[in-house]
């Protein structure tokens, strides 16, 4: 006798829903600690490195982090997915946001500095942060510094750009490099002239762009224009996935970590000083002759107070 009840085809078993990823670094680190005992051996190796070296994640590539953790890069991708992210980049962004101070505006961070002010403590924290930032330069740029020097040495002209807080980094590089190379131009964008200056880019040139989060629109425009013109692009920035880094032939990384309300440019300035040193060594005697000529002209023009005068 037929049944009045409708028949339904058997349903496939329901897959476990993907967990929602943590929304900030503290939540992620808490999840890693809580779930650590139940993770596979490979996942534990990756998680241990993330817990022990959070400062490395924003500035090192996934490949370098995987090598330091003793796992394959694919393990970090799978670990990220296991924690609810689409991939490694989603997990990494939490570390990057924490390094930048999250989305907190400068004024909010300034209130914290004022509230917790202590002269001796503040000085110690600042010096510790700068030592850490400088140490990361060597750790992150051993090969890329040489690559950047090679690209710049081979360029017909070098254009340098850095806006707002990054202007001192760009200006330092331009000023010191120009002491022994005349074909170095600083892109200033004064009085709305950025587009006019970008017309000077040519395929055999190289463009150095400095920017850290929050990234300026001008720096992104310079990098994009340089790429369109066929220039070599060297990015000085705080992340391998910074907008200017995505368009770069070579990326030099520096940390802007600071206990103060504003990101620090100390490591960025140190980076360009190290880069100019590499460029001087590559040019050799020619650079020495050009430097002697520039120094002589500056003294003859009265740029400096003669020695012995107070």
What does it look like?
Residues 7-22 have a biased composition (Pro residues). Residues 26-102 form the HTH rpiR-type domain. The protein is of the alpha/beta class. Helix content is 54%, strand content 8%. It is built from 13 helices and five strands. The protein has a five-stranded parallel sheet with strand order 2-1-3-4-5, with helices on both faces. Helix 8 (167-178) links the parallel strand 1 and strand 2. It starts with 24 loop residues before the first helix and ends in a 10-residue tail after the last helix. Residues 1-5 have low confidence and may be disordered.
Compact overview of the structure:
This protein has helices spanning 25-35, 41-52, 62-69, 73-82, 88-99, 106-115, 119-154, 167-178, 194-198, 217-229, 243-246, 266-283, 285-300, and strands at residues 158-162, 184-187, 206-210, 232-237, 250-253. By secondary structure, it is an alpha/beta fold.
How would the blueprint of this fold be written?
Layout: H1 25-35, H2 41-52, H3 62-69, H4 73-82, H5 88-99, H6 106-115, H7 119-154, E1 158-162, H8 167-178, E2 184-187, H9 194-198, E3 206-210, H10 217-229, E4 232-237, H11 243-246, E5 250-253, H12 266-283, H13 285-300
Parallel strand pairs: 1-2, 1-3, 3-4, 4-5
Domain SIS: 148-285
GO biological process, one term: glycolytic process
Domain HTH rpiR-type: 26-102
């Amino acid at each position: 006798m037929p049944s009045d009840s409708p028949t339904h085809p058997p349903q496939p078993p329901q897959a476990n829903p993907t967990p929602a990823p943590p929304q900030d670094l503290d939540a992620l680190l808490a999840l890693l600690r809580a779930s650590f005992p139940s993770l596979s051996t490979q996942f534990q190796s990756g998680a241990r490195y993330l817990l022990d070296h959070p400062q490395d994640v924003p500035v090192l590539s996934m490949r370098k982090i995987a090598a330091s953790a003793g796992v394959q890069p694919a393990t970090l991708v799978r670990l990220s997915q296991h924690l609810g992210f689409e991939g490694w980049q989603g997990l990494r962004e939490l570390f990057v946001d924490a390094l930048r101070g999250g989305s907190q505006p400068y004024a909010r961070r300034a209130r914290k500095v004022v509230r917790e002010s202590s002269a001796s403590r503040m000085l110690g924290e600042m010096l510790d942060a700068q030592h850490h930032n400088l140490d990361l330069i060597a750790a992150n740029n051993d090969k890329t510094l040489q690559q950047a020097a090679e690209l710049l040495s081979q360029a017909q002209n070098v254009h340098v750009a850095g806006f707002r807080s990054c202007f001192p980094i760009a200006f330092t590089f331009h000023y010191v490099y120009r002491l022994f190379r005349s074909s170095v131009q600083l892109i200033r964008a004064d009085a709305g002239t950025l587009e006019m200056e970008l017309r000077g880019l040519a395929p055999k040139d190289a463009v150095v762009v400095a920017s850290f989060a929050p990234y300026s629109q001008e720096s992104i425009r310079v990098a994009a224009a340089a790429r369109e013109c066929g220039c070599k692009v060297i990015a000085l920035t705080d992340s391998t996935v910074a907008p200017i880094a995505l368009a770069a032939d070579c990326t030099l990384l520096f940390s802007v970590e600071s206990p103060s309300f504003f990101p620090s440019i100390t490591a960025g300035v140190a980076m360009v000083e190290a880069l100019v040193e590499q460029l001087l060594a590559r040019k050799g005697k020619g650079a020495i002759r050009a430097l002697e000529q520039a120094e002589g002209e500056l003294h003859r023009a009265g740029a400096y107070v003669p020695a012995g005068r107070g």
